[in-house]
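Hi Y.,

Following your request, here is the sequence exactly as I used it, all 116 residues.
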Amino acid sequence: MKRLVEIRSYALKPGSASEFHSLVKATAIPMLHEWGMEVVAFGPSGHDPDAYFLVRAYDNLADLESQQEAFYSSEPWLTGPRDAIVSRIESYLSTVLWLSEESIADLRRSNAADRG
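Below is the corresponding structure, written out as tokens. Let me know if you'd prefer a different format.
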């Protein structure tokens, strides 16, 4: 079975990556899990000190859209860490692709060290 994987790449404001990672790790990732989103991998990019990535898996495009709409319009996100996180982002780009469950598991394992 294939899953739709979203790779979100963030261009962060210069010098904010460490704070951004701390905020994402401590607040956003636990919230995404509470909302039932499957976070595959996240962390600082290896190519640019002001770049960051978040990888999530969904059943299909409709699942991605409904989960993200519910989460990003929720009171806990809007009144919680949203401003602190978004204020450190210059821009972001999302790309989606289909991957097998095995590829997703490998992506998760291969990037586990970046979560620290």
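Helices lie at 17-34, 61-72, 75-79, 82-86, 101-110.

Thanks again,
Q.
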